Amino acid sequence: MKLDTSKILVLAPHTDDEIHCMGSVIEMLDRGADVHVHAFSSCEDSIPEGLKRGAIKAEFMKAMEALSIPPKNFSVGSFPVRRFDERRQSILNVMIGLRGQISPTLVFCPSSTDCHQDHRVVHEEAIRAFRNCSALLGWEAPHNQRVATTNVHLSISQNSLDGKIEHWRNYKSQGFRGYFNEDFLRALAIVRGAQMRNLKTGLAEAFEMLAVNVR
Q1: Is 1 a domain residue?
Q2: Residue 77 — pLDDT band, cuts 50, 70, 90?
Q3: How many independent structural domains does the chain possess?
Q4: In this predicted structure, which of 8-17, 47-56, 118-127, 150-159 has the lowest mean pLDDT?
Q5: Could you give the angle at which helices 55-66 and 158-169 cross, rounded to 10 degrees?
């Protein structure tokens, strides 16, 4: 099966969550894909001590601009972190609006085994909103998963992996998080590349196929 990557939508629960699929997104950007990214929260209630409100949102904007994604193609919502379940219908409404505006052929979102409460809401509502698009893929987030259900591997180049790491470096406010660093990102790409026997680059990202519709 060949994915239609002409128009991509990334549904990030929080600014920085898009990192989980960024190697593949950069790979597709380099091939001319029209990429859109929406983050539902900039985590204003979780900003590390010493940083001003809006700091993480500013990092997100800088990260998007570094990829040359047009400003009209990325946006940030204001849903309160860790309280998405209270705003489930509003989150679904945002997705329906994006669906009508963009008509994506490929959507990325959290996977079914992600235990973060906000990530689970975005996953569940994404299935409702995008189950009829060409493909809906759930990314892996090992720090949030006891078990990962990955059945799709996407090959990425060394340049795309390097770009993913540079993307993460824009999030200086998140540097304290031990589960994300350059060694981790490179190691995971190598493991996934080995699983798909990617002899060309040896690198890949893994996803859970949540919906697929071949037309």
Answers
A1: no
A2: very high
A3: 1
A4: 47-56
A5: 150
Distance (Å, rounded) from C-alpha 173 to C-alpha 195? Answer: 33
**Residue-level pLDDT at 215:** 60
CATH of the domain at 83: 3.40.50.10320
Q: What is the pTM of this model?
A: 0.96
Which residue range(s) make up the domain with 138?
Answer: 7-211
